[in-house]
Amino acid sequence: MHSVNHHVKRTPLIVMRDVTFALFLREIKTRFGAFRLGIFWALAEPMAHVLIFSVIFGVRAREGFGGVETPIFIYTGIMPFLLFQNLFNQCKNACKANQGLFHYRYVKPINTFIARSILETGIFLFTSACLLALFFWVGYQVAINDILYCFMIVFLLIVLSASLGMIGAFMVDFFPESDKILSIAMKPMMFISGIFFTLDMIPPQYHVYLIWNPVLHAVELFRTGFIQYFETAHASLFYLFVCSLTSLFIALRLYRSHWTRMVAT
Amino acid sequence: MIALQNVTKYYATKLGKKYVLRDVTFTIPEGRDVAILGPNGAGKSTLLRLLGGIDFPNKGRIQSNKRISWPLALASGFQGSMTGRENVEFVCRVYGRKHISHTCQFVKDFSEIKDYFELPIKTYSSGMKSRLAFALSMAFDFELYLIDEITSVGDASFRKKCAESMAEKRKNANVIMVSHDMGTLRKQCDMAILLQNRQLHLYENVEDGIQQYQA
C-alpha cells in the first residue's frame, strides 16, 4: 500500500489557477455531463427566440433593423441578453452550488465566480459561433462589421453581469428573501433590454423608463458593432462603462469585507 | 504549531450571538497529538474547522506553519451531485496533485466501494461516504490531521486497515482529534484541550483532561 506525494510548494497564483481550473471542470461536468443534451439546450434557447420573433416580424423584414433581416437582428439582441441573464444567475448561485467544496481550504468563493464566468463566456462564444454558422448555411448575410468593437461590448457586459451576480449573491446571503425579489426583477428584463426593438423605435417621451438599463445600452452598442448600417442615437458606451466599473467596485468591496460568510455553513 | 491570537468566534442566531470562543489566545504546541474535549454543542467541530482554515474567526487571527488536512468528518466535504471519482479528481486538482488517475485507483481500492465510485455521492450510504472520505485523506500526506469522530468507520477489517494506515501516516504527522470515545483518545493522544465556557484549557496529560472533563 502506498500513496505518491509531491510537496511542491505552490505560489498563491498557481493555487488560484489550480482551484479555478478544478471548479471549471466540475462545472462543465455538471452542466453537460449529466444529460448529453446539454449542448443542444445551450443552442435551443437562443434559437427558439430567433424563430419566434422571425415568425412575428417576418423572416425577411428589414425595416428599422439597420439593413439586416429579422433573424440576424434578434440574434444580435438575444445573444448578449442571454449572456447577461445566465451569467447573473450563475454568479448569484455560485457559492451555494459549491458549498460542499469549501471543505478544502484552498477553495474560495472568488474561484467559483471566476470559474462560472469563464464557462458562461465560453458557452456564449460557442453558441454565437454555431448560430452564425447556421445563418450562413441557411443563406443569410452574416458579415460582422467591427468584431473588435463587439468583443469590447461583450467584455464590458461580462464584467457588469458577473459583478451584479456577485452583488446578488451577497444580497441573498444577507437577506434570503431578496432571492425572490431578484427573480421577479429579472423577469421583465427580457422585454426592456431591446431584444426585439431599438430605442429609436420608442417615442422619446418613454425613453426615461428604458434608458437607465445598462443591458439595453450593451445590446444597442453590440448591434452597432455587428450590423454595418445600424445607428443608435441614445446608447452610450460611457454609461455602460461606468455601470460595469461601478458594479465591479461594489462587488469587490462586498467580497473583501464579507467573503467568509459565503464559506461558513 | 498553531497559534490563536485573540480569537473570538460566534454564531448569530435569532436569540443573539452564540459564542464558541471568546478572546482566546492560545498556542497548540508542535509535535503533540491533541484530544479536544468538551460537552455537546460547545463547538468542538467548529474549533476543528477554524484550525483547518475552512471557517474563520469573527475577531482575531489563527496562524500555522503546518500542512493541515481538511477535517475528516463523517459526512462532509463531498459534493453530492458529483461521483466519487469526480470528487477525488477535484480534490487532487485543488491540491496540485499530478498523477490523478493513480490517486483515484488508490482511493477506489482503499475505500472498497467498488463500482459505487462511479456513482454520485448522494446515492452512497453514510458508511460508504465516510470510507471514501477516509481513503481520500490517506492519499495525501499532511503534517497534521484533523479528525472528527471518523475513527469508527466500517467493519472490523476495514477499521484495522484504517488503523494501520493511520499509524503509518503518524510516523511523520500528528493528529488533533475530537471523539466521544475516551478509549480512542487515551490511545491516540498525548495531551488534551478542554473547550469549556468559550475558553481553551490545556492539559499536558490526556488523563488529566479527561478527568477534568468528566468532573
Automatic annotation (TrEMBL), chain A:
Q: Which Pfam families match?
A: ABC2_membrane
Q: How does it sit in the membrane?
A: Multi-pass membrane protein
Q: Give all residue intervals belonging to the ABC transmembrane type-2 domain.
A: 37-258
Predominantly, its location class is membrane
Top-rank lineage group of the source organism: Bacteria
Residue ranges annotated as transmembrane are 34-59, 71-88, 118-140, 146-170, 191-212, 232-252
- What are the record keywords, sorted? Cell inner membrane, Cell membrane, Membrane, Transmembrane, Transmembrane helix, Transport
Subcellular location as annotated:
Cell inner membrane
Query: So what family is this one in?
Result: Belongs to the ABC-2 integral membrane protein family.
Q: What is this protein called?
A: Transport permease protein
Protein's organism: Catenovulum sediminis
UniProtKB/TrEMBL annotation, chain B:
Is Phosphoprotein a UniProt keyword of this protein? Answer: no
Would you say which domain of life the source belongs to? Answer: Bacteria
Its keywords, alphabetically, are: ATP-binding, Nucleotide-binding, Transport
State the InterPro entries in the record: AAA+_ATPase, ABC_transporter-like_ATP-bd, ABC_transporter-like_CS, ABC_transpr_TagH-like, Bact_Polysacc_Export_ATP-bd, P-loop_NTPase
Recorded protein name is: ABC transporter ATP-binding protein
Fetch the CDD domains from UniProt. ABC_KpsT_Wzt
Q: Which residues form the ABC transporter domain?
A: 2-215
Q: Does the keyword Heme apply?
A: no
The family line of this record is: Belongs to the ABC transporter superfamily.
GO MF entries: ATP binding
